[in-house]
Amino acid sequence: MKNEVRRRLLYGGPQRPFYAVKRNSSLGKRRRRGGVKSRSFEKRGQHPGTRGRQAEARLATRLVRAPAMLKCGMGGSQVKVFGKAIQALSRVSDELWLDPSEKGLALRSVNSCRSAYGCVLFSPVFFQQYQWSTSVKMNDNDTISNLNCKLGMKSILPIFKCLNSLERNVESCKIFTRSDKCKVVIQFFCRHGIKRTHNVCFQESQPLQVIFEKSTCSNTLMIQPRVLAEAIVLFTSSQEEVTLAVTPFNVCIKSSNEESMDLTSSVHSEMFVGPDEFDFFQIGVDTEITFCFKELKGMLIFSEATHAPISIHFDFPGKPMALSIDDMLLEANFILATLADEPSRASSPQSLCLSQKRKRSDLIRSNSKAGKNVTSKALEHISRKAAPKRLCPNETLTDISALENCGSPPLKRVSGDVGEVPASSVRRAEEVLASPCLRKARFYNAGSPSTLSRG
Amino acid sequence: MKFRAKIVDAACLNHFTRVSNMIAKLAKTCTLRISPDKLNFILSDKLASGGVSMWCELEQENFFSEFQMEGISAANNEIYLELTSENLSRALKTAQNARALKIKLTNKHYPCLTVSIELLSVSSSSRIVTHDIPVKVIPRRLWKDLQEPTVPDSDIIEANLNGELNLKIETELVCVTTHFKDLGNPPLASENASQARNPEQMAEVHIDIRKLLQFLAGQQANPTKAVCNIVNNKIVHFDLLHEDVSLQYFIPALS
């Protein structure tokens, strides 16, 4: 290790070592020294407890027969689609779940106020190779648990940032997990023999899943993404909400504005689209739904990559709507809450504002009383108890009724800090390690602490 | 008060969009004055814009295929509206390939200028886009502040009667002068002034360069004719003529 350092100084080249050659050997060395985690604890000035870590690691191997794992590989052109999915989901929230199953790899995201949920499911045929397994534990009566992997969007989004250059340079990409270290490894095999590796720590957390019956919606529209993109141009980026109004004769997308009397209020725009512009047009009930613009834009970003038409399923105001893309290789669903109809909607603008404000304060009070427990099963949809003015996450809004989790054990909703976790002591230790401060994408780091600090 | 206008010609529409983009770059909020034969974009809020004022005039016949207006009263057959110029230019941006564009004054909870665009879409069914731009109607009593500025008799120094213009900047370290020669001098309105002037004598004025830059940067197309009038140490007046739109811009001298 020291020799490496001296050599680098002589060359006067970049501070970081050239990873392609050194990486594997140094990994071996690192492992013998107790793993990267201990070093980063040193870096943060905490007591590493290397011996203790090794002991726990040994304990882990005794208890867990085989950890849940994911291993998949994709070609260069799929990387762009994968990256676009992540970018679209980043509009929903700051956290992403990787959820492999026999149906394929699902990327899920739910926003903090539970008014939006996104899920992109890549079927096994999307990948060049796809392997996954659940874990079987000796304790806990042989419960089977999936890979419960939650990543911070801040860690993973930069990896898939410049998709155009990725598309040009990357020949293949491998993603696999190392459950013993709570890490997801993303490797890009690029042209000219360059190999880029990213390690992202994940947090143990069961994904949330929303069940939404699209077939029971009375209104379904299918439209080419280009048409929607043209509609989006009408609105400024400061526009928070848009309204979709449908009748059997036409569809209107319009900006949804507060009523105000001055010059600074923004332009109200609307666009009418005739039924023949839709690939599929079924309107069962005339309705107007209002939802968050940001998530619609997120969905559009993704649809540009897939060139498949977007389906919109919705009913009456208040009931969530679904934006989905169904392709042979993947299925994307964005479920968004919609603004519920106010009984006083027919009255003049001022009284509308007042009644909504009152409702919102009621909602906040009831939220503080109720916990954040979400345990009831048999969920049909995200519904909203009241109708606050704004849907978007920067205001405290909805109260979720329930969200059903993927696996059978009771749902644990892990918040930003370390959440509660299932029983075993091993798992708890790993939880502490995978706390948010560690969730940083790191280049595969071959160095001693001195190298780290220099880099 | 009523106002309805329609543009069907693509070239006229592009030209109008360009004018509105130019206005948006020069003034954040401006006044639109509608009269039977002209449209004016006026900026005369001297305090807010740092002394700069602007007057832009369009002959409505050159743009609109249909134009109807009814002012406040028969005697004062004009409408003055205050609006955010960027709203108009953004609304017009979506009208790139429009079949027709209609503008009218409406009242939807508050007065609006409604821009209604009929777009031709690929599937040959037309799509209608509407933008409601909020406006404020300026009351009659404030109209006198918004009249066409009279151009004072100019002394031309630093640009002189021989057709020379010098642009000079001075900083602590450096002084740069750009000399333009062989420019034309438009005939002066009053004969007396011209007789009293020595052709070689230069008129000069110190202005804030940022304002000059903002003005020049806002130009979307090359004007067919540009006149620069300078009142010694008082004000500089630019008069640009693009085909059928005239734009006058006044920049006061730094005190």
UniProtKB/TrEMBL annotation, chain A:
It comes from the Eukaryota. Transmembrane segments: none annotated. Residues 24-55 are annotated as: Disordered. One of its GO terms (cellular component) is checkpoint clamp complex. InterPro entries: DNA_clamp_sf, Rad9, Rad9/Ddc1. Keywords: Phosphoprotein. GO terms for biological process: DNA damage checkpoint signaling; DNA repair. CDD domains: PCNA. Interacts with HUS1, HUS1B, RAD1, RAD9A and RAD17. Belongs to the rad9 family. PANTHER family: CELL CYCLE CHECKPOINT CONTROL PROTEIN RAD9B, DNA REPAIR PROTEIN RAD9. This is Cell cycle checkpoint control protein. It comes from Equus caballus (Horse). The gene is RAD9B.
UniProtKB/TrEMBL annotation, chain B:
It comes from the Eukaryota. GO terms for cellular component: checkpoint clamp complex; nucleolus. One of its GO terms (biological process) is DNA metabolic process. Gene3D superfamilies: 3.70.10.10. Pfam families: Hus1. Belongs to the HUS1 family. This is Checkpoint protein. The lineage of its organism: Eukaryota, Metazoa, Chordata, Craniata, Vertebrata. The gene is HUS1.
